[in-house]
């Protein structure tokens, strides 16, 4: 608007093209990231088994890619751009905070786990990550007003789905796997006794 007021409409057009290009690249990257994250969650039995199917030729998670793509198209059609950007910002900050907390927990509970990458200066960097992302979220809440209330609602819906479906299903699958391991160990033990 400021460029058009000053009579430089071509600059406003250039800025608009840059904004559209940036938003398009963000949507593409978010779709790829969401697809991979949800595919991993489906492999860990937090989502229905159909979502973990891999394409026989291309070896990509094609079902979840379509689901995420359709959800993003619906979101782009019906959500206000500012609202979508705000929810995206909050979800990124929340995921960074969860990753930082996960790093701290795993360093304490499983320090000998083989890792291809170790966070340097732990616990300082994860603690700073939690502090900075939390501060940015608080600043965003103050500046956004009522729009910021949608994120806790969205987060609660996600947690409700996780605990009502994913957590129970994952625990049930872990019990089944544990029984299979116990049965396999018992068969191996009885086979060893039979050989002797």
Coarse shape: elongated
Q: How helical, in percent, are the residues? A: over 70%
Strands, count: 0
What gap, in angstroms, lies between the N and C termini? Answer: 87 Å
User: Helix segment count?
Assistant: 6
Question: How large is the share of residues in beta strands?
Answer: under 5%
On the 0 to 100 scale, the average pLDDT is 82
Secondary-structure element pattern, one letter each: HHHHHH
Main sheet? none
Q: What would you report as the Rg, rounded to the nearest angstrom?
A: 23 Å
Low-confidence stretches: none
**Structural classification:** mainly alpha
3D structure, described in words:
The protein is mainly alpha-helical. The chain is built from six helices and no strands. It has helices at 2-5, 9-43, 62-78, 81-109, 124-144, 150-195. α4 (81-109) runs antiparallel to α5 (124-144). It is elongated. The model has no long low-confidence stretch (mean pLDDT 82).
Which SSEs are present, and which pair or pack?
Blueprint: H1 2-5, H2 9-43, H3 62-78, H4 81-109, H5 124-144, H6 150-195
Could you give a quick summary of the protein structure above?
The radius of gyration is 23 Å and the shape is elongated. It is built from 6 helices and no strands. By secondary structure, the protein is mainly alpha-helical.
């Amino acid at each position: 608007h400021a460029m058009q007021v000053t009579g430089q409409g071509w600059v406003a057009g250039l800025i608009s093209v840059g904004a559209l290009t940036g938003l398009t690249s963000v949507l593409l990257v978010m779709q790829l990231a969401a697809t991979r994250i949800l595919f991993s969650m489906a492999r860990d039995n937090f989502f229905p088994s159909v979502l973990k199917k891999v394409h026989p030729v291309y070896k990509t998670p094609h079902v979840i890619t379509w689901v995420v793509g359709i959800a993003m198209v619906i979101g782009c059609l019906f959500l206000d751009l500012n609202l979508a950007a705000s929810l995206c910002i909050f979800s990124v900050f929340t995921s960074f905070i969860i990753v930082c907390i996960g790093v701290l927990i795993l360093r304490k509970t499983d320090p000998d786990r083989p890792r291809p990458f170790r966070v340097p200066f732990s616990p300082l960097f994860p603690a700073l990550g939690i502090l900075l992302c939390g501060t940015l979220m608080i600043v965003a809440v103050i500046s956004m007003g009522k729009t910021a209330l949608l994120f806790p609602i969205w987060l609660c819906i996600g947690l409700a789905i996780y605990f009502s479906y994913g957590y129970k299903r994952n625990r049930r699958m872990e019990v089944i796997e544990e029984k299979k391991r116990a049965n396999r160990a018992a068969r191996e033990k009885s086979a060893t006794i039979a050989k002797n």
